[in-house]
Amino acid sequence: MQGTETERGDLPEAAAALIRIAGLTKHYPGVLALDHVNFDLKAGEVHILFGENGAGKSTLIQILAGAQRPSSGEIWLRGKPIQLEAVHQARRMGISAVFQEFSLVPQMTVAENIFLGAETTRGGFLDRGTLRRRAGEIIAQLGFPLRPNARVQDLSRAEQQMVEITKAFRSDLSVLILDEPTASLTERETERLFQLIDQIKRRGVGIIYITHRLQEIKRIGDRITVLRDGRYIATLDAKTAGEDELVRLMTGRVISEIFPTIRFAPAQEALRLEGVSTRSVVEASLYARGGEVVGLAGLVGSGKSEALRAAFGIEPLKGGRVFLKGTDVTGGRPRALMDQGLFYVPPDRREEGLIMIRSCLENMTLPAISRKPIARGIFLNRAAERSAATTLGKRLNLQPLKIDRAVDHFSGGNQQKVLLAKSLSRPVDVFVFDEPTVGVDVGTRVAIYGFIRDLCEAGAAIVLISSDLPEILHLAHRAYVFHRGRVQAELAKADITEENLLNLFFERKAA
Question: Would the N or C end of the chain have less CB density within 10 A of its end CB?
Answer without folding.
Answer: C
